[in-house]
Amino acid sequence: MALIIPVRGFTPEIGPDCFLAENATIIGDTVLGRDCSVWFNTVLRGDVNSIRIGNCVNIQDGSVLHTLYQKSTIEIGDHVSIGHNVTIHGAKIRDYALIGMGAVVMDDAEVGEGAIVAAGSVVLSRTKIGPNELWGGAPAKFIKMVDEAQSREINRKIAHNYLMYSRWYTHPDDPDNLK
């Protein structure tokens, strides 16, 4: 079972039908919507400020989410995919965005709806990434606009696939989950 730690009077709130890996750690002022998945070795550390996560969000293996004390919070919309080993520190990530493996998104940065942050990128504090934009590099820079339909298809497919993967763990005997 995941490690759920209350701190400073805040107990994490986990929405219905979420998958929490056995060694995931969820701390303090953290709220997850429904159908989320928090994968192995992931830490959601809401000890110094709030973390709010929408519905059908997948936070993949080894990721760390944290904030600045009394300064920054994390807000993640619906159907967002956070790749393996991502660090999000006090940022806002809008619906259907994709944060690639190993990326870092710093305080007060905003990632727009349907946007993509390439693997290994470093999004500096206060950077504003617009809807359906692709950013990459260290520091991350605008690369190009992604066709809205293409972005929607890619980002939705990943988000919905991770919901399916989580069902392999939470409903292992359901034949519909064995695809």
Characterise the protein shown here.
With 179 residues, the chain is mainly beta. Helix content is 13%, strand content 36%. It has one helix spanning 148-170, and strands at residues 3-5, 13-14, 19-20, 25-32, 37-38, 43-53, 58-59, 64-66, 74-76, 81-82, 87-89, 92-93, 98-99, 104-105, 110-111, 116-117, 122-123, 128-129, 133-136, 141-145. Strands 1, 2, 4, 6, 8, 9, 11, 12, 14, 15, 17 and 18 form a 12-stranded parallel sheet that branches. An 8-stranded mixed sheet has the order 3-5-7-10-13-16-19-20. A hairpin with a 4-residue loop joins β19 and β20 (141-145). The radius of gyration is 15 Å and the shape is globular.
Q: How many angstroms separate the termini?
A: 25 Å
Helix/strand order, N-terminal first: EEEEEEEEEEEEEEEEEEEEH
Strand residue content: 35-45%
Instruction: Identify the overall geometry.
Output: globular
Q: What's the helical proportion of residues?
A: 10-25%
Mean pLDDT comes to 95
Taking all Cα atoms into account, the compactness measure Rg is 15 Å
Number of helices: 1
- Topology, number of strands: 20
Major sheet details: 12 strands, parallel
Which class of secondary structure composition applies to the elements? mainly beta
Taking pLDDT < 50 over at least 5 consecutive residues as the criterion, the unreliable ranges are none
